[in-house]
Write a structure and sequence with these properties.
Radius of gyration: 21 Å
Helix content: 25-40%
Number of helices: 10
Largest sheet: 5 strands, parallel
Shape: globular
CATH superfamily of the largest domain: FAD/NAD(P)-binding domain
Distance between the termini: 26 Å
Structural class: alpha/beta
CATH class of the largest domain: Alpha Beta
CATH topology of the largest domain: FAD/NAD(P)-binding domain
Low-confidence stretches: none
Strand order of the largest sheet: 5-2-1-9-21
Strand content: 25-35%
Bound molecules: flavin-adenine dinucleotide
Length: 370
């Protein structure tokens, strides 16, 4: 009996579990190790914060999917991989031997900035962020707050700032705290086309969100925020959506990584140094063709990963993963309104939000209705 171990219930592993459910292999024993029984779909997280979705609507039940795939579900985090003896060590002391290992554990919030870990609401892990957001919202409704800062000028930070501003206006009207968005890059969304960026800025103005670009944060304190320029201002709460960091486990395990500590993988999604270890999504970098850390690539890698895991177990040839460079971007803008981008084109509207809503619901339903 061959042993396949899946580390992390990420977006690529959804396809792997789906594939195992559709084509069971009685000669392979499968285990999945992940700390939460659900995967929160980040495409819908801003919609949850804005109040458009319940938490259940954005969640995919991993225990159920594992059951359909005849996989053992182990609710724990992996802390170490030992490629020499082909073992994984988990937080609960479980040691799992593997013939083929697949890693899809995502990324971590990263800052290195004073006070962030202690005083900010970190976006990752998502489950912890959701709990902190619910507590903050209850606190604001009961006791008020003068301002909220969101650090992070990427799509996640922009969507969260707009979602927070929308929710607070809807719930508190003129008593809503002021929302500001801070980024150390000279402009918001530096990798997006001008047409998308202008539309985003217009939507931020609509909610009177203060934008501070080119402003690195030096310290997050209790109730204040200090910039690298020395400027200090009051911030009742700070949401940290800046920086995507690699899990420390890879370097601690001696696995091959890129300069930032993400797993180094080849075109076949296999570790460049450890045969039998595959990876996809935010946690890995395809060294010959690096792509942004976006869920869309984790999703697209899923079917190729599923095929290559089967091939590695059977000793048959692997297939390369070659994602398209251009992809559709749909950014939610607080209310039921979204901005779309493809290549150099940008557009927006309520219909764009409806389009995004349908894509997102269909994705979650695909893994919920199985
Ligand atoms: C607010 C926000 C909005 C976003 N919107 C979009 C969007 O619209 N489109 C887009 O393309 N991208 C978006 N992103 C980026 C997207 O969230 C990530 O790129 C995506 O989640 C990466 O998927 P993944 O499968 O690699 O990892 P994840 O989705 O993070 O899944 C990792 C899984 O591994 C588990 N895990 C973590 N550590 C361990 C461990 N040590 N052992 C075992 N299991 C572990 C986790 O619990 C989780 O189940 C957004 C991000 C944010 C923050």
């Amino acid at each position: 009996m061959k042993r396949l171990v899946l580390l992390g219930g990420g977006h690529a592993h959804l396809s792997v579990l789906e594939d195992l459910a559709l084509h069971p292999d009685e000669h392979v024993s499968v285990s999945i190790v992940t700390p939460q029984p659900q995967l929160l779909y980040t495409g819908m997280l801003p919609g949850y914060v804005a109040g458009h979705y319940s938490l259940e609507r954005c969640s995919i039940d991993l225990v159920r999917l594992a059951g359909h795939a005849h996989a053992s579900f182990i609710q724990a985090s992996a802390v170490l991989v030992n490629p020499g003896v082909r073992e994984v060590i988990c937080t609960d002391g479980t040691v799992l031997g593997y013939d083929v290992l697949s890693i899809n554990v995502g990324s971590q919030s990263q800052s290195g900035v004073k006070g962030v870990e202690r005083n900010a609401l970190l976006v990752r892990p998502l489950q912890r962020f959701v709990n902190s957001w619910m507590q903050l919202l209850a606190h604001i409704k009961n006791q008020g707050l003068s301002s909220i800062s969101v650090a992070g000028g990427g799509a996640g930070g922009v969507e969260l700032a707009l979602a927070i501003a929308h929710r607070l206006r809807r719930e508190l009207d003129s008593h809503a705290p002021h929302v500001r968005l801070i980024t150390d890059s000279p402009v918001l969304l530096p990798s997006f086309p001008e047409g998308v960026r202008e539309r985003i800025l217009r939507n931020l103005r609509r909610y009177e969100i203060g934008v501070h670009a080119g402003s690195g944060v030096a310290e997050v304190g209790l109730g204040f925020l200090r910039l690298e320029s020395g400027l200090e201002f009051e911030s009742g709460a700070t949401v940290w959506a800046a920086g995507v960091g690699a899990p420390a486990m890879f370097r601690e395990s001696g696995l091959a990584t890129d300069a930032a500590g993400f797993l180094a993988i080849d075109d076949y999604l296999q570790s460049t140094a450890s045969p039998g270890i595959f990876a996809a999504g935010d946690c890995a970098t395809q060294v010959n063709d690096p792509r942004p850390k976006a869920g869309v690539f984790a999703v697209r890698a899923g079917p190729v990963l599923a095929g290559n895991l089967r091939a590695a177990l059977a000793g048959t040839p692997l297939k390369p993963f070659r994602p398209r460079r251009n992809f559709l971007t749909l950014i939610s803008a607080g209310r039921k309104h979204a901005i779309g981008g493809y290549g150099s084109f940008g557009w927006e509207g309520g219909w764009t939000w409806g389009w995004k809503d349908r894509i997102d619901r269909r994705f979650v339903d695909r893994f919920t209705a199985t």
